[in-house]
Predict the 3D structure of the following.
Amino acid sequence: MEASSTKSSPLLNKHIPIVTRSVKGKFRNFKTAVMLVAYSVYFLLPWLPWTRNSAADQAVMFDLGTRRFFIFDLIVYPQDIFWLAMLLFIAAALLFFTTGLIGRAWCGYFCFQTLWSDLFIWIEHRLQGERPARLRLQKQPWNAEKIAKVGGSHALMVLISFWTAVTFAAYFSYAPDFVRALFMGEAASAGYITVLVLTITTYFAGGVAREHICTMACPYARFQGVMYEADTLAVSYDKRRGEGTAGRALPVAGLKTRDERQASGHGDCIDCGFCVQVCPTGIDIRDGLQYQCISCGLCIDACNNIMDSVGYPRGLIRYDSERNLASDAPHKPRLEWRRFKVWGYALALIVASGLLFYNIGTRSDTEVSVQQVRQPLFVMLSDGSFRNRYQIHIVNKTEHDEVYTILVRGISPESLDLGNIPEIRVRAGKSLTINAKVDLSQEVAARTSNFEFVIQPSGQNTEPLLLEANFNSKRDF
Ligand code: SF4
Ligand code: SF4
């Protein structure tokens, strides 16, 4: 008994490559539109010029050398790490929000894995033909035709993967210079390693592993279940309508019209298998919601086309909720947004986005901080006065060099000693640390526990920045 069950359930099933059929319909069109927009943005953005004073004229550039990210007119510094944290939070909240409403919309239409797999499948379709031709090609022995078609497809995929990798690397340096240096053999080794690694991974993920990335590597497929609710819209097969009481059946003689099928208890599914043939993950949606389903909607298009051809109403496979499908009187599928979870995610999204935009909008062009030197905390000078030392850190976040004046408030101006610095000039995008000494007589030190540094940028209409500082003297002991 045991032996036979082991035999019939091998630990590893033989991998059968998925050869998808192409399909026409509104979800296919939407996917194509998203793909065109996403590719245009990704591949063209590094080449978009943008006038800058202090860096290369590139609209979007992540300059690791100067530790600045340029996003059009916005310059992001390492000190703006809060923005990254907020962005990650917003991305997570958006994912939960959309998944709660319409399932895995991200996976089906926007995920990089989907976009690149889709493009590579399209290449196979163009070079090797429609599904039956590709299946034939798979079975035939290797000959000139097979080598040309299969080899040509993969060569094109490698080429696209290579340009994908080059484009990615071009976001991290001035694109025209980087590409020229890359082909002249003059780029930094990090550039070549990045391009090599990304070419291999892109080709492997989109051209070879494909659905296995979604079903085996991506953690999102595994925990999506916790985000689904009974009211979540998901790609679903209307089992009641498709199976009837006698199950699905081919449209053979006597079972062609809906009336004939209903009279014999059969449902609307004519068991053509088109919904399975177009599925990029190779599943049968008629078996119910599965973690492998990326919600791409292609099976909806396929089934709708079949329904049109046999003259039955569309929507046997559709976006619908579990609750509606199970109800005695199903209504037209609709977004059920009046739910506690959806409102919670929406609120989190609004608050986080508001905070992020407020923070970006109100960021100062200069960032300053002060740290008191604590070793020693103070020294007593020969005339009995006390000296405290400070390090003032200034970050110039503008695109031009800036000159700063440092003053004190709450103590006399003469007590501040900045050394022999003719002027405090900080280059665009750079930072500078100034060593400052503050000397107070015994009497003043006795009644002074804190004061303020005033940092005044030289630019017109710039507000001074105030930094509170402690003053320590012997009286503290
Ligand atoms: S079952 Fe349908 S929606 Fe799900 S992945 Fe397959 S084709 Fe896409
Ligand atoms: S495409 Fe529609 S009719 Fe054809 S097998 Fe799938 S569910 Fe049935």
Remarks:
- Residues 417 and 437 are 5 Å apart (CA to CA).
- The chain has a mean pLDDT of 92.
- Residues 144-170 form the longest helix (27 residues).
